[in-house]
Design a protein that fits this description.
- The protein is α+β, with helices and mostly antiparallel strands.
- The chain is built from twelve helices and 25 strands.
- It folds into two domains: 198 residues, FAD/NAD(P)-binding domain, CATH 3.50.50; 124 residues, D-Amino Acid Oxidase, Chain A, domain 2.
- 28% of the residues lie in helices and 25% in strands.
- It has an eight-stranded mixed β-sheet with strand order 6-7-5-16-17-18-15-19. Strands 9-2-1-13-23-21 form a six-stranded mixed β-sheet.
- The protein is globular, with a radius of gyration of 22 Å.
- Keywords: Oxidoreductase.
Amino acid sequence: MAALLNVAVVGGGIMGAAIANAASRVGAKVRVLDVEARPGCGGSTRSTWAWLNAQKKLPEHYRDLNLAGLQRWKADWPHLINPCGSLVFGDDDSRSLTDAVYPAQRLGSGEVLQREPGIAPGMAARGAHLWVQEAYVDPQEACAAMLAAAEARGAEVLLGPGQRVERLQVEAVADEQQEGRHGELGAGRRRVTGVVTADGSYHAADVVVLAAGAACGPLAAGAGVEVPLLHKPAVIALTQPLPGPPLTRHLLSSEEVFAFQRPDGSYILGDTRAHEDGSQAWGESLLARATALVPGLAERGARVEAVQVAHRPWPKDGHPIIGPAAALGCLGLYVATMHSGMTLAPHVAELVAQELRHWQREMGRAEGAAPELLAAQALLRPYRLERSYDSGVAAYGWKQ
């Protein structure tokens, strides 16, 4: 970074917090803007299941990216994660058992009940796949820790309704710049120079990083950039904290429900359906399915305390969208949005930080021969904004 790079990060969820932390570490001047008063309490981060995993993620480069994310959590933030492992019921795919890089173990009924005595015997009889390497993280605690680390290095974190980013400030690239020495700034190019927030403030920036989940689409559209995201909302339900010792310890997944008992004793429940039914009745349906898996929920008097609709970022092909918008004619804009953000955030943030470290403002992207930059760019190449989204390669090997 020849001069101090002024970076505006839009979004204080897990991706924005991780990028702010990593960018501040490489010397950028960082400002984070988020509408929520508390870190990680909005959008997709608020309603994530926070399951850290690389399970059935395709192809290999995407599995490996997730595995690197999981390893980064364990290396850099071990105090934040619960290395509980996951138990998946109803999985008949034997390929997971022979994956040398990310293997599962097949458990019979007795082994399931030995690990989780609270599982219904009928469900345990089906057996399960165990991934011991997987983990859970509290999303709000993680966001707060990452933003605090960024602030300790001088980052500015602006939170609250007035900090909602209403639009990107965009300017046309002047003719003389189009004739510049790089010869790459053709007609119709524009530059994002900052953002305008709900309180009327203008925040200038050399680079605006959109890390705002599903909101990346409409914000980028204001700069003439398409971020191809699908509308795939999900619903989670939360129970009240249950008294007594933990009923279960693993992340539990079946064809009917996901369930995990958090450290405070409450359960977070969900499934893979894409819909927006945030009613109490739907929450009760999730609880009924979870009770069929863990009968002790009824015995402890579990009740649904909250139902949340999550507007998840879901790229058209399922894979992350990470990179500058220069190839689409827009300078000064960087997009980082993805479905598996909780798992990927700390690793992807380090890769993004290398691009910001070597950012060339006049080109709207990173340039250079530094080994760490070239390594980061090689890993990010499959996920660029300008790629084809019709490869036909599914990102996830489980039912959606």
